From TrEMBL:
Residues 43-81 form the MYND-type domain. GO terms for molecular function: DNA-binding transcription factor activity, RNA polymerase II-specific; zinc ion binding. The keyword Nucleus does not apply. InterPro entries: TF_DEAF-1 (IPR024119), Znf_MYND (IPR002893). The keyword Flavoprotein does not apply. Keywords: Metal-binding, Zinc, Zinc-finger. This is MYND-type domain-containing protein. GO terms for cellular component: nucleus.
Length: 426
């Protein structure tokens, strides 16, 4: 089996341009296709057998029948391949479009307008923006081109050029919306007064839904709601805040305690959290506020899902919820910390909980280099396709075998000596 270099093809460089391809004649774009699994006898992209298969030289785990298939799958495979270099935010965007989820990566949200949309607009603004970008990919715009536009500050002009090459009746409903909100991508700063007002209005609208769900009067003033909520226990307050979010068709983000206490930490921030959020939305429609609070207080949320006809939950979720809200294994505190790191804007600083810091090596750090090495290691271990199991990681900690566990999934060289010191447990 021959090997070809699996990297971003040099012929598809930042200087290239591509004319929009009519939607009715284009091939199915990569983000709408279902790639086949590869056993190195079948192409990882098209699934065909070939006597001249070429193995990926980056990860050496999958193979392709042609450079074209390699190129077509690269936007997805880049996250699995050990390329040992930063991944451009445009690939996070295209991956999220494939999974039909709003981006959570901090820099991606900044680069492509989602952060600004969340701060200055209400309603479906982020969904509309995601659909606008999906339309660009369907029209033949490549990740390289979109990245070039973003880096040059020409997103607005080129989005207009691409969509206006189509007849008005074929531009869809998201382009007219974009024309009314071009400031999302023009590089202008967020108006702090507008952001504050949007935040207040959005939170109040969510609170009213939760207030009505728990039996409060729909005519209650903001002061009356605050007075009623102040009488709730901490656990019931957490439930109120959570169901308010769920009833608004939203979900917590990794920076909130509810990401941990309601089990979202058991997902991989790659789309699974969307499914869990949807299940919670179904659950609150089938149970009362008191039922939900009782299940939360007694660590029986998984049983409540099952009793309401929503099936059994996976073992990782059940493990988190078995002790929540009072206790979680330190590995889940570690995962919560890493989820925050992965979802943060560049330059953001986070600190793991004391139990995670002690159990997983952060207390052994002598400086920022050590800290970054552990962040990188656990980010790779918790990656969706790493194969590492959080509960097996916890078991390795208990046995004093963190280093041996890490070696199974991550290349530690040239930092093996440092990792040996950092992962030493007493």
């Amino acid at each position: 089996m021959r090997v070809f270099e699996f990297c971003e093809p040099a012929t598809d460089n930042l200087q290239g341009t591509t004319s929009p391809t009519p939607i009715d004649t284009m091939s199915v774009p990569w983000f709408m296709a279902a790639p086949a699994s590869s056993d190195c006898t079948h192409c990882a992209w098209c699934g065909e057998e070939s006597p001249d298969m070429k193995r990926c030289s980056g990860c050496r785990k999958i193979a392709y029948c042609s450079p074209k298939c390699q190129k077509d799958q690269w936007p997805a495979h880049i996250f699995d391949c050990k390329v040992n270099k930063p991944i451009s935010t445009v690939y996070y965007l295209s991956r999220d479009i494939r999974n039909d989820v709003i981006p959570v990566d901090g820099q991606t949200r900044i680069d492509y307008g989602f952060d600004k949309a969340s701060k200055t607009l209400r309603g479906d603004s982020e969904n509309n923006l995601l659909s606008l970008y999906k339309g660009l990919f369907m029209l033949g715009v490549t990740e390289k081109e979109l990245r070039k536009w973003q880096s040059e500050g020409t997103l607005v002009a080129n989005i207009k050029k691409t969509y206006e090459a189509l007849p008005p009746e074929n531009r869809g409903g998201y382009y007219p919306w974009f024309l009314q909100h071009q400031d999302l991508l023009d590089g202008s700063p967020v108006d702090p007064n507008r952001a504050t007002q949007v935040s207040i209005e959005s939170n109040l609208a969510m609170w009213r839904k939760g207030w009505a769900y728990m039996g409060g009067s729909p005519d209650a003033t903001e002061l009356q709601m605050k007075a009623g909520l102040s009488a709730l226990s901490p656990e019931r307050t957490a439930c109120f805040m959570f169901v308010s979010v769920a009833l608004s068709s939203k979900r917590p983000n990794p920076f909130l305690p509810s990401w941990l206490t309601f089990g979202f930490v058991s997902t991989n921030c790659g789309g699974a959290e969307i499914g869990l959020g949807g299940l919670y939305q179904d659950l609150v429609k089938r149970c009362t506020f008191d039922e939900f609070c009782t299940a939360y207080e007694t660590s029986t949320i998984p049983a409540l899902f099952e009793s309401k006809g929503l099936g059994k939950r996976d073992r990782l979720f059940c493990d988190v919820m078995a002790g929540s809200p009072r206790f979680c294994k330190s590995v889940w505190h570690l995962k919560h910390y890493i989820d925050k790191v992965v979802s943060s804007k560049p330059g953001s600083e986070h600190v793991p909980s004391p139990e995670a810091g002690y159990d997983y090596g952060y207390n052994n750090c002598k400086g920022i280099v050590d800290w970054k090495l552990l962040d990188d290691l656990y980010t790779k271990l918790f990656a969706e396709n790493s194969g590492a199991d959080p509960l097996q990681l916890h078991e390795a900690f208990q046995k004093g075998e963190l280093l041996e566990f890490a070696k199974k999934y991550v290349k530690l060289a040239p930092w093996t000596a440092k990792y040996t010191r950092l992962l030493k447990t007493t």
